[in-house]
Amino acid sequence: MGAGVILDFDGTIIDSELNLFNTINKHLISAGHDFMDMEFYKNSIGTESQEVDNYIIERLGSGAPAFINAEHKKTCKNLECNDHIIKLINYCAKQGIQMSVATSSVAADIIPVLKNLGIYENFVSVRGKEHVDRVKPDPALYQLAIEDLGLTPSQIFAVEDTVNGAIAAELSGVNVIVLTNEMTRDLDFNSVNYHSKDINFDELVIAIETIYYKNI
């Protein structure tokens, strides 16, 4: 049966977490407020949090989260796919390794970004918050993606950049690879039983091939 790969979206496929953080602060500064503290913001990434929205509402009004999110979605279309992810997608396509996306964002919002990047057709499915009752760190998104791939969890690698996402992947039983970025590299992943962390592309391929050749 080979192997499968499930990718997180925000912060993994594109650097959207930093983009949202910068968009929020642009509006805060324009309205005369201080920058949002990055450590405060980091607590919300990889999951669904009302704390950041409440922070914005207190300073910019009840409609602010919606127009900030709309601007964020628009500007995300201008972001490039992370280089190591493009290499991974091309590798999986060449090897016939199936891929899916599991995101705490709304799938309908990120599908246009995937299409704009020219990578949407590489995925068996895109699972988002509209498909589950609870997002990461709950494993429900991963459980759906696993079913879509038609593989056992032990045959699948998940690529995540946040603690909440890595916990969700671990709870679903898949092999977890943590690839952090500027926003997440100093988060504490000690609670996660991950397979590998911050490895390069060649090491990533070796990890996947260990599962792939074992199961073909």
Structural summary, described in words:
There is one protein chain. Helix content is 48%, strand content 12%. With 216 residues, it is of the alpha/beta class. A 6-stranded parallel β-sheet has the order 3-2-1-4-5-6, sandwiched between helices. Helix 1 (16-30) crosses helix 4 (64-76). The mean pLDDT is 93.
Defining key terms:
elongated; 6 strands; Rossmann fold; six-stranded parallel sheet; 216 residues; alpha/beta
Question: Can you tell me the residue ranges where pLDDT is under 50 for at least 5 consecutive residues?
Answer: none
CATH top level assignment of the largest domain: Alpha Beta
Strand content range = 5-15%
At CATH level 2, the architecture of the largest domain is 3-Layer(aba) Sandwich
User: What is the alpha-carbon Rg in Å?
Assistant: 17 Å
Give helix % range.
40-55%
Any idea of the CATH topology of the largest domain? Rossmann fold
Q: Structural class of the secondary structure composition? A: alpha/beta
Q: What's the CATH H-level homologous superfamily of the largest domain?
A: HAD superfamily/HAD-like
Helical segment tally?
9
What would you say about this model in short?
With 216 residues, the protein is α/β, with parallel strands linked by helices. The protein has helices at 16-30, 38-42, 50-60, 64-76, 83-95, 107-117, 140-149, 163-172, 201-215, and strands spanning 4-7, 98-102, 123-127, 156-160, 175-178, 196-197.
